[in-house]
Automatic annotation (TrEMBL):
The keyword ATP-binding does not apply. Belongs to the cytochrome P450 family. Keywords: Heme, Iron, Membrane, Metal-binding, Monooxygenase, Oxidoreductase, Transmembrane, Transmembrane helix. Pfam families: p450. InterPro entries: Cyt_P450, Cyt_P450_sf, Plant_Cytochrome_P450_Monoox. It is found in: Membrane. It comes from Rubroshorea leprosula. The chain crosses the membrane at residues 6-24. Its main location: membrane. This is Cytochrome P450.
Length: 246
């Protein structure tokens, strides 16, 4: 009885708040772009199936290049048109410069390295050519260094193509910058790591079949559906250099 006596007087306030929320949600957002059908409470969150970038790719094909989405209590706009994207980040760049707080993955470099090696194992001629480039420029007197890796053109082409085909973060997660800057640390790390494992080891697939290149479910990142497994053995350059270490 006491619970009911407390509940009844509060009903008008609850109904008033519910009315205001519905009213404000309908009046605050005008001239919005087309929007897919939504569900109550979760809105359009049910459309974000994994892999997320593939799910978002299908929406513009049905609803057009500019789509309004409501993700829970937040509104978002999905832009797949180059001209509209240019307008967003030129005329309205300051307005759209704010980046929401997010948790970002720390394994994108390792993921890129895994995709690159999987591709190389499926294309042995490319792997052989990359090793020949390293041998011709460095010989067998020393291991590849960071400065060397950035100058190995064929190796850089392999990494660039890997990033085009299998980007570690297929969804553009924007950052806020207060000044122009050049950041290439991740590419340097991947270049040095890939150059080192090509130079130091002979690589083979674990089976006669090609490595499975199916994309996994990673949300904002794009891992492999099946982790890479490969066989390797040290090349003679490793024994030679290790014998020279005192």
């Amino acid at each position: 009885m006491e619970d009911q006596s407390i509940l009844y007087p509060s009903l008008p306030a609850i109904l008033f708040l519910a009315f205001m929320l519905v009213f404000l949600s309908k009046t605050r957002h005008k001239n919005l772009s087309p929007s897919p059908p939504s569900l109550s409470i979760i809105s359009h969150l049910h459309l974000l199936k994994t892999p997320t970038h593939r799910a978002l790719l299908k929406l513009p094909q049905k609803y057009g290049p500019i789509i309004s989405l409501k993700l829970g209590s937040h509104f978002a706009v999905l832009v797949s048109s180059a001209s509209v994207a240019e307008e967003c980040f030129t005329k309205n760049d300051i307005i759209l410069a704010k980046c929401p707080k997010s948790l970002f993955g720390t394994d994108t470099s390792a993921m890129t390295l895994e995709w690159a090696m999987a591709n190389l194992l499926n294309h042995s001629k490319v792997l052989k050519k990359a090793r020949e480039e390293i041998n011709s420029q460095l010989g067998d007197e020393r291991l590849v260094e960071e400065s060397d890796a950035m100058e190995l053109q064929y190796l850089q082409n392999i990494i660039s193509k890997t990033l085009r085909l299998y980007p570690g973060t297929p969804l553009l997660i924007r950052h806020l910058s207060s000044a122009d800057c050049i950041i290439r640390l991740a590419k340097r790390v991947v270049s040095l790591a890939l150059g080192s494992i090509i130079q130091c080891f002979e690589w083979e697939r674990v089976s006669e079949g090609k490595v499975n290149m199916t994309e996994g479910k990673g949300g904002a990142t794009m891992p492999k559906a099946q982790p890479l497994e490969a066989m390797c053995k040290a090349r003679s350059i490793v024994n030679k250099l290790l014998c020279g270490v005192e």
